[in-house]
Amino acid sequence: MKTKSMQINQALRKRVVNIADYLLANRATVRMAAKQFGVSKSTVHKDMSDRLKIIDPLRYQEVSKLLDYNGEIKYIRGGEATRIKYKGIKRG
To answer: What 3-state class would DSSP assign to 3?
Structure first.
């Protein structure tokens, strides 16, 4: 019988690892990764929360910490984006 790890094909495995590496290298958000790789936010989230755990448990722990951090500060980013929008300040 095949294990879950064996059932994930090579192209999918490569995408999952590449997205994880991108997230960690750039301290990126799910939205940023989705845009970079041309997939949906749901796909990135599924890849990082389910598939990465099977493929590379150590990398999964690092990515999980980053995603938890991003979740904790998302209201700060949202508030900053609103402030910029209404003050006409350009990001640089």
So the answer is: coil
45: its two tokens: 């989230």
Kindly report the backbone phi and psi dihedral angles of residue 84, in degrees, each rounded to the nearest multiple of 5, phi listed first: -65, -45
Which domain does 52 fall in, by range? 7-87
Rg (CA), the chain: 16
Q: How many domains does the chain have?
A: 1
Question: Is 2 a domain residue?
Answer: no
Tell me the pLDDT tens digit for each residue of 5-59: 556 799 999 999 999 999 999 999 999 999 999 999 999 999 999 999 999 999 9
Q: How many helices (H) and strands (E) does the chain have?
A: 6, 0
